[in-house]
C-alpha cells in the first residue's frame, strides 16, 4: 500500500492559507453564499492551485468542521468528575467564553451549519457530541443529587451555557454596537460568573 508523502513546507503553508481564507469566507457568507473563487482570492492563490489541495468547496468545509468539532468539544471534555463541582462547571463556562473571544469565526461557522439543519455534521452531533453531553450531564446530575450544587436540569444547564457564551461570538457586532465597547468580554465574564454561581450555589 502506498503511503502518502508528507507535505512540503510550501504545501503546508498553502493548505493553511486555504483553510484560513475559507474560515473567513464561510463565517461571513455561509456555505451556500461562498464560492471557491472567493476562497482562492482570499488565500492569495489561483483557483486551479486551490483545487490541487482540495477537490471541492464541500471538501474544504468538511475539513474545517472536523477540526472545529474537536476544538468545540475540548472544553467539555476537561470537566473533571472528581473535581470540585462548582469549580468544574464555572471552569467550563470560562473556557466557553474564552472560545467565543478567541474563535469568533469558528463559532459563526458552527452556528451557520446548525441553522442549515447540520447536514454535514449531523452524525457528529448525534454521535460524539451527544455521547459527551450525556456523560457530563450524568456527572452534573450526580453532583446535584449529592447536594454539592443546587438542583438543576443538567442538559438545560449545558444549553444555557452554550447560549450565553456563544452569543458574544455569533452576535458580536450587535453586542459591540449596543455597548459601544471595544472589548465586552471582561464584563461578560463577571456577569456570567455571577449568574451561574448564584444559580448553582447551595
UniProtKB/TrEMBL annotation:
Residues 35-54 bind DNA. SUPFAM superfamilies: Homeodomain-like, Tetracyclin repressor-like, C-terminal domain. It comes from Actibacterium mucosum KCTC 23349. Residues 12-72 form the HTH tetR-type domain. Keywords: DNA-binding. It holds the Pfam family TetR_N. GO terms for molecular function: DNA-binding transcription factor activity; transcription cis-regulatory region binding. The keyword DNA-binding applies. GO terms for biological process: negative regulation of DNA-templated transcription. It comes from the Bacteria. The keyword Cytoplasm does not apply. This is TetR family transcriptional regulator.
Amino acid at each position: 500500500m502506498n503511503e502518502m508523502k508528507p507535505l512540503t513546507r510550501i504545501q503546508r503553508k498553502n493548505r493553511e492559507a486555504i483553510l484560513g481564507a475559507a474560515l473567513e469566507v464561510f463565517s461571513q457568507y455561509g456555505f451556500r453564499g461562498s464560492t471557491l473563487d472567493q476562497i482562492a482570492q482570499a488565500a492569495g492563490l489561483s483557483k486551479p492551485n486551490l483545487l490541487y489541495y482540495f477537490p471541492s468547496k464541500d471538501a474544504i468545509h468538511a475539513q474545517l468542521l472536523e477540526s472545529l468539532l474537536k476544538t468545540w468539544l475540548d472544553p467539555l471534555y476537561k470537566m473533571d468528575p472528581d473535581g470540585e463541582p462548582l469549580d468544574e462547571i464555572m471552569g467550563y463556562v470560562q473556557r466557553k467564553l474564552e472560545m467565543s473571544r478567541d474563535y469568533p469565526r469558528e463559532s459563526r461557522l458552527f452556528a451557520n451549519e446548525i441553522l442549515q439543519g447540520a447536514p454535514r455534521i449531523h452524525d457528529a452531533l448525534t454521535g460524539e457530541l451527544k455521547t459527551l453531553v450525556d456523560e457530563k450531564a450524568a456527572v452534573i446530575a450526580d453532583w446535584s443529587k449529592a447536594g454539592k450544587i443546587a438542583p438543576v436540569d443538567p442538559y438545560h444547564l449545558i444549553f444555557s451555557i452554550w447560549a450565553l457564551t456563544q452569543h458574544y461570538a455569533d452576535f458580536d457586532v450587535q453586542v459591540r454596537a449596543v455597548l459601544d465597547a471595544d472589548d465586552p468580554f471582561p464584563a461578560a465574564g463577571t456577569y456570567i460568573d455571577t449568574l451561574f454561581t448564584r444559580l448553582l450555589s447551595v
